[in-house]
Specification:
By secondary structure, the chain is an alpha/beta fold. The chain folds into 2 domains: about 220 residues, P-loop containing nucleotide triphosphate hydrolases (Rossmann fold, 3-Layer(aba) Sandwich); about 80 residues, NusG, N-terminal domain (Alpha-Beta Plaits). The chain is about 35% helix and about 25% strand. The chain is built from 12 helices and 13 strands. The protein has a 6-stranded mixed sheet, with helices on both faces. A hairpin with a 2-residue loop joins strand 1 and strand 2. Helix 3 runs parallel beside helix 5 and helix 8 crosses helix 12. The longest helix is centred in the middle third of the chain and has 16 residues. The protein starts with a strand and ends in a 6-residue tail after the last helix.
Length: about 325
């Protein structure tokens, strides 16, 4: 009978002396799901991944991975996982093909089977033309794709990706995303950590927002935005020395229900609040365009304005009052 959940954690806790890195969190990852842990550096994401991967013990709580306890069945759990660490740990002295074959030998896989599997993985990672190249001659994006290809050599049930696109340029990120989309469609369970909000929106069907070792919110990207933000956001710049003063004025203006001289009422705007950032103001409203019209009608003239949809970054600002990238 198949295991219902790929991963289940209850009260998961990790302490280092007096410091609590992961503070009693509960979560489940369904089989075949793409699940994300979103949060700033130091939030406890990588520590959680290390406990899932059976390379760090937990201080309290319970956990099962593919139906097994990582602490009691470490080798069996690791055999079912593919792990993509934050930093590539490829063998620079070996060729691209040799990296995959040597890694497969650690799992006791027969060489004849590995030879065929390696060609399949090279094609998947778009590295067939680099099969004989030394790893040290690859670009950062190619090294990342090779790391993923290597992690798939044992045909893992679950693929753990810790900050998979850190340091990559936009083109390399999108190529990597495409490879991960293909894995997700094939039924591989993906668990990734990231502090890139656009990456979480693109790759994750469901995620938890973590900060200081605790879960701040959980749900799909669209659901989190719906529950913790407004439909749209208006970005305004008045100048760094005027932003705080203008924020108070905007709050009063957009909260007012008087429509006699300013057009749409506050209820029609769906106005929520104003967030003050060092370089700009964020006005949260159901209709940012209507809010901007009301602001212009009042005689206020921002230096720049931008209307956009809400994002996961806005969710995090609402929950913690600061950006994800520390």
């Amino acid at each position: 009978m198949p295991v219902e959940h790929a991963i289940r954690a209850t009260g998961l806790t990790k302490r280092y002396g007096d410091f609590t890195a992961v503070d009693g969190i509960d979560f489940t990852v369904n089989r075949g799901e793409s699940f994300g842990l979103l949060g700033p550096n130091g939030a406890g994401k990588s520590t959680t991944m290390r406990m899932i991967a059976a390379v760090a013990s937990r201080s309290a709580g319970t956990m099962s991975v593919a139906g097994l306890d990582p602490e009691q069945n470490g080798p069996e759990v690791r055999a079912r996982l593919g792990v993509i660490p934050q930093q590539d740990n490829l063998d620079e002295e070996l060729s691209v093909r040799e990296n995959i074959i040597m890694y497969g030998r650690y799992f006791g896989l027969p060489r004849r089977w590995l030879n065929a599997k390696t060609e399949e993985l090279l094609e998947f990672a778009q590295l067939s033309h680099k099969a004989t190249a030394r790893v040290e001659d690859l670009s950062g994006g190619m090294k990342r794709r090779l790391t993923i290809a290597r992690a798939l050599v044992n045909e893992p049930e679950i693929l753990l990706l810790d900050e998979p696109t850190t340091g990559l340029d936009p083109q390399a990120r999108h190529i990597l995303w495409d490879r991960l989309f293909r894995l997700r469609e094939s039924g591989t369970t993906l668990v990734l950590t990231t502090h890139h909000m656009d990456e979480a929106e693109q790759l994750c069907e469901r995620l938890i927002v973590v900060d200081e070792g605790r879960i701040m919110a959980e749900g799909s990207p669209a659901g989190l935005i719906r529950d913790h933000s407004t439909r749209e956001v208006l970005e305004l710049r008045f100048g760094m020395d005027r932003n705080q003063e203008q924020a108070q004025q905007l709050t009063t203006l957009l909260s007012s229900a008087d429509t006699s001289s300013h057009g749409a009422a506050a209820g029609d705007l769906g106005f929520s609040h104003v967030e003050v950032l060092p370089d700009r103001l964020l006005v949260y409203a159901g209709s940012a365009e209507s809010a901007l019209e009301r602001i212009h009608a009042s005689g206020l003239r921002p230096m720049t304005s931008l209307v956009r949809r809400s994002s996961l970054e806005d969710v995090f600002l609402r929950l913690t009052g600061r950006t994800l990238v520390d």
